[in-house]
């Protein structure tokens, strides 16, 4: 095992103390290892290691009755899940029985506070022991020795010096974050440039961390609580408190951890996150077999035991085991007990509150009480564009700021957003004026964006001026920051002008912005355009119009997780539009275009497409896509999906989104008992919820909506199980005064559009193509 890097004798002593603490902090009365195995109690779980591989293992209650039976895995580990909290449990195998064990509930209240005595080095690799004895791998990157980004190390700028104690951030995920050679993304390096120490820590059951993996089970949140409270107590951490930061997986984990309310958590900054699992995994009730399923398969594969020949495990764990890291090797014993994510996905194709709600941030972010900075993108090709629905649910804190824009998954790190993120972390975690390290961040920005976005050296991306950073004092900067409205929307991202005014179309600069108190924006109007004759959208419902199309999901199946349009290819400038937004062929869709708009119109929020339809098959999936037509071009704006048999809408707050449904935000129930086949002898109403958008339609533009089978309108997302599974459905779309099929958009009156129409292409992750008129059948 390679020796970790220690910066001082004190750090070496601290590491020795950590080893001693790890031997004493584990709760429970484990069986003596000489008798065959060690058993521990956890939160609704009991685990044992050192069991003979393949041996039968029984879990006994306080009365000696068998409550569960399992076989030990090939490494001699066994995990009993869903165990009722209580005392006196024992584990029996091969004639040996453990001492009494306590099984705890999932309340954050700590049952083993002695773990907070652990010491961690201010730099280097190590293991943190949680309340149930599980050891989590971590890597500490102080600002004096920054982490790398894309293989490039960003040096500490000349004239800048950092001394402990450091303001500290935690990045917590199931990716290879603890890799000593550098985490899987560059967030840690960016934070180091800002002057923060970063603790990259690996979720249980992944990489070199112990335990068994499951997707955001309560125990992962309790681990997050323990991580915060342990790191915050380190002598090299400034102020005895820590913040959290991260993007995607590392952003979602912050929401789960913060809801447990660790006392020493200062603030969180989640980027590019989900609002509910259904909106990414089952859009409209249709399984996303592209990114979502591929991501789950990858997480499940990476959670398998390293060092055993299993394919797809995390490379850094394999390397550490080869180099003699016995802790990493021992931590693999329970990896084989990882939950089957694919089995869980199949078992939960419909909304089951007891299963879904604990996994859906929209159900629990009201419990978050610390300052929060959150950023998401409307066209995010990974987590999807439904994140803004979280805004109204963040009721537990008054210090909350949200930034939304058009763009890809990585655009939560665009210059305007990165500026605001930096200000937030400096004010609420570092307790310093952002002017302190702003120059260092600005100097590093071109390197950051060259690595993150693939921009060429001749097109450097730099940070714009920031009024908060111009304030020399902490109080002045705080007042300036807190004067901003909570919701900030950046419009026409990709069509703006950077500080040097030499940028190219597609560079991550917005053309202008607006701020609001909330989403939905006050005074928003639900404006309707009606599907009618002549393949047109009308201001009024037509007398009667019927169009038909052949719904075949195999016509444009979409792109998969790594099918040539992988995430890296979407993040560059020209390459983000290369996923080839294809035209629909005649007869495979119906499409309607409005007359030229007489004046500017801005939409902010969610929307819907209400359809009166009749299908030749018992089930059919719908995809609705909104686009803008102007100057012979068509620009993608947003899509939505809905399965015909899942069409029943919720009528109250007892639904997956925990909010009152509305004309602009219809909410399907997604309950199995509400599934109904599509009637073939009459028209029935199907409402397709649109994901959120913020788009500026200039005067003279036309709005288009296209209804088709799912696929082809979102990079990486695919729907291999879309209905009909075989063949095609003939779908008739009726629109009349009594059956008004219509597009409903969230129009915010009175908003200025402060820039000319963007060139084609330029808007980030909003592809632009030649406009081809479409004649409905």
TrEMBL record:
Q: Which InterPro entries match?
A: AB_hydrolase_fold, CocE/Ser_esterase, Galactose-bd-like_sf, Xaa-Pro-like_dom, Xaa-Pro_dipept_C
Gene3D superfamilies given for it? alpha/beta hydrolase, Galactose-binding domain-like
Q: Which residues form the signal peptide?
A: 1-19
* Keywords attached to this entry: Hydrolase, Signal
> Residue ranges of the Xaa-Pro dipeptidyl-peptidase C-terminal domain?
487-744
The name this protein carries in UniProt is: Xaa-Pro dipeptidyl-peptidase C-terminal domain-containing protein
